[in-house]
Amino acid sequence: MEFTVDKYENYSMAKISQEKVDSTVAPELKTEFMDLAQDGVKSLIVDMSNVKYVDSSGLSALLVGNRSFGESGAFVLYNVTDHVMKLISISQLDKVMNIVSGQEEAADVVLMTEINKGQGAAE
Predict the structure, then answer these.
(1) What pLDDT does 120 receive?
(2) Is residue 75 a contact partner of residue 46, using CB atoms and an 8 Å limit?
(3) What percent of the chain lies above the pLDDT cut of 70?
(4) Helix 26-38 crosses helix 56-70 at what angle (to 10 degrees)?
């Protein structure tokens, strides 16, 4: 699976370069998310611009990411393609996940989550 991660001070940014996030890559994606959380990453921003299709396994992997980072920080998806967004909406995952249009908005969600959870720079 094509997955890159860049680590920053308050969050990490991941890019999924696969066009299809389905049962063939979802287990590896779940593992990537869990490994990052166990490595101490509190918030993860995921660029979905290359993903053209997700199936139920792919949606499940995204939910694992949402759960893995939801307690410590934020899990934010951005640049979600129309087709993938439609599938996320049909499954009503848009009600439980942070989905924004751009990278700056995603960073703002992380910042607001840190403030709301009391994890700001003062700590």
Answers:
(1) 52
(2) yes
(3) 96
(4) 10
Q: pTM of this prediction?
A: 0.92
Burial of 13 (0-12, 13-18, 19+ CB in 10 A): buried
CA Rg, the chain, in Å? Answer: 13
What is the C-alpha separation between 57 and 34, in angstroms, rounded?
16
Alpha-carbon distance 108 to 110, whole Å? 5
Strand boundaries in the chain, DSSP class E: 3-7, 12-16, 20-21, 44-47, 53-54, 75-78, 98-100
Q: For the chain, how are helix, strand and coil distributed in percent, rounded to 5?
A: 45, 20, 35
What are the start-end ranges of the E strands in 19-109? 20-21, 44-47, 53-54, 75-78, 98-100
Q: What is the pLDDT of residues 16-55, one digit of tens each?
A: 999 999 999 999 999 999 999 999 999 999 999 999 999 9
Instruction: Please give the DSSP secondary-structure letter assigned to residue 71.
Output: T
- Calculated CA dihedral for residues 49, 51, 54, 59, nearest 10 degrees: -50
